[in-house]
Predict the structure.
Amino acid sequence: MTFLAVNNLSKRYPKAQGPALDDFSVMIKKGQRLAVIGESGSGKSTLLRIIAGLEVADHGSVTFKGQAVLDPTQKLVAGQDDIQLIHQQFKLHPFSTAAENIRRPLLLYDKEYARERTDFLLRLFGLADKKDRIPKELSGGEQQKVAIARSLSLEPELLLLDEPFSNLDIRQKRGLLEELEEIFDEIGLTVLLVTHDLEDALAVAEELCVIRAGKLVQRGTANELYRNPENHYVASLFSRLNPLPNETDKYLRPQHIRVDESGHVLTGKIVKCQFHLLYNRLTVSIANSPTTWTVFDEKRTLHVGDNVNLSYSGEDILQIAEE
Ligand code: ADP
Ligand code: MG
């Protein structure tokens, strides 16, 4: 039995130009962590809301552990406890402490169980020493952890995360992502994350699905998608693509281009140089061609106006159709 089966979902909102979801299917095994990645408006939130039973699909079905997930027209109270959805704009109760926020969904449960479960989650998320703080006394990352801990209070088997890290600064985010990955591993939670951010997807998920205009474009490990992208859209999620001059549908990633090597293949002139963390990012105008390339200078020795020799190996050329 498939843990979560999303079968041929289609959804079009009234007055919308195109479909939000277009015959989208995906399967997830128990304990798996999958990320759906796609640009804004590609249907990610709609997908999660339908899976959580909070939105009605026009066609298709969702089954969770062999049972149909009922939509709001089929159920008095929308959603189900064993599937929890967390948004970017999660809302904590502002005047309740971290512990009280986490315990809130457990109010109707046995008091002893509620206390134990809350303590367990506070420890799991490294929040035990901050349990008496109210949200504004916590960092953004800590608030996000309280929100996720709260959603785990009812012991859901499937966690749906909708761009949950977009509001955090990059340092908070990196720390949180590492910590979450370990926590999810430890409790064997099944996670479906949707995001426009490849770094977030890679940090949490083992496998990726690329969505575009409501359609599944490609599914695979990061490595598979990187090596064998189905089309330009998938390839461009991973890096800039430098077109080979005088060729069609052939590209090189910046990281595969070497600067100032003997045995060069192309020459160009540096028109822009930007400092990045691991390299200077050069914009190079390729000689005898209107093409400009993005190239990385790890040694940081080159300057605007310099002529450079560029080389690459043929096996790194990506041959990909536009669509
Ligand atoms: P994403 O989460 O990837 O940004 P969404 O699922 O939110 O994408 O939206 C998919 C498409 O459906 C977009 O074109 C969006 O404008 C449209 N859409 C989303 N929600 C509604 C709604 N309630 N009413 C009308 N159109 C909507
Ligand atoms: Mg969204």
